[in-house]
Task: structure prediction
Amino acid sequence: QVQLVESGGNLVQSGGSLRLSCAASGFTFSRFGMHWVRQAPGKGLEWLANIWHDGSNEKYADSVKGRFTISRDNSKNTLFLQMNSLRGEDTAVYYCAKGENHCAYEWGQGTLVTVSS
Amino acid sequence: QSALTQPASVSGSPGQSITISCTGSSSDVGGYNYVSWYQQHSGKAPKVMIYEVSNRPSGVSNRFSGSKSGNTASLTISGLQAEDEADYYCSSYTNSGTWVFGGGTKLTVL
Result:
């Protein structure tokens, strides 16, 4: 049974940094690409970033390119999102998702990031 | 990376069928058969209902179906049930190697 557990969400000041983690279990982590998706309060889903199964390629949404970095440690079955230069509009629930069948096939429960000014 | 266009809301009575549209461009929806649909109940994580335009994951009711014509994809829910009331999002792969979501559609079961 696939399980994805996000952690690291917190209250942070504008301009600050935060690192999110996503612990994966129940599948062979190193065989699948992974995504980060966020949802601002009362708003829709926004795709943020994707990383290939072996970490050799990454893609980002324009809204976070240059500020956020996706990475993974396949030896620890963990996905990361390093977030720098945080802004108020980055306040959201952040989800990690397993990439399969060309979509975000399995999702974690999310972790809340609040950026205060 | 413009969001895909969905109606803000749709509604239907129990037993009826509804269709939610998702319009993109030839750079995303029209260019790839990689459209997916997600259901999100209030306060919960999204759940994939349709992938690769028309495929249903194991465990998803066959009342849910997907299709695509040109730059517009559609999700149809037949035999509407109270438990179907939720937000629905479409998503597509793009020619930039990224993904994009629609703005979401709130389904109300009357």
Summary: The longest strand of chain B covers residues 86-93.
